[in-house]
Amino acid sequence: MKAHATLALGLVLCTTAFVFEIGRALGGNSLSWAYVFEWPLLGGFAVYMWWKVLHPENEATKDKLAHAKPISPEFNGMLAAWQAHQDELTRSRNDAPSEGENP
């Protein structure tokens, strides 16, 4: 829900800024013409990022993962240490008290 609210706020801001800058550009401020094109592009980027947040896995990512090269043997120890650290972090997050709970 936060992603939707953030997008809505961003689009309202971009639309308001666009209307403001088009008024200034039509009023004779030549620099405002750059902003007239910038605000819709920024709004489009906000929509793109919103989509990426809601749909993090796509076909390109899946293809990259499917064709990933195996890890060299000399890095196996590093991989095992990293995975153990990730497991420890997950356990510590799960064991941590929730908001409102007394420790």
Provide the descriptors you would attach to this structure in a database record:
single chain, 103 residues, 4 helices, mainly alpha, 74% helix
Can you describe this structure?
This protein has one domain. The model has no long low-confidence stretch (mean pLDDT 84). It is built from four helices and no strands. It is elongated and about 65 Å long. It has helices at 2-26, 32-54, 59-66, 76-95. The protein is mainly alpha-helical.
How is the biggest beta sheet arranged?
A: none
Structural class: mainly alpha
- The H/E string reads HHHH
Number of helices: 4
SSE order and pairing:
Elements: H1 2-26, H2 32-54, H3 59-66, H4 76-95
Concise account of the structure shown:
This protein has 103 residues and is mainly alpha-helical. The chain is built from four helices and no strands. It has one domain (2-94).
